[in-house]
Amino acid sequence: MNLLFERLYKLDVNGWKKQLAKRYRALRRTHFDSNRLIQHFTNYFRLLERSGAAAREHARWNNANGIYLNFKAEEEYLHTWINQRICALDSQYNL
Description:
mainly alpha; 5 helices; 75% helix
């Protein structure tokens, strides 16, 4: 965590915690909507596929130094992580 934000949170400067929660609630309806976040990443994964970049990366790096590429598994992991993180933040900010 950034030390400035850590201090603001710890000292609750000018009601920082309430302001942070209010801002999170506002962004949760737009930029932090889990479906919207997931869609952004889904679009990027589709772009990687359509452009041929995923195939090139797979050909170049798969099984290099013990690295195995699986873009579908990465996409699924990312979707799960986003949902879990949003749930944790919702809990933290009492949503």
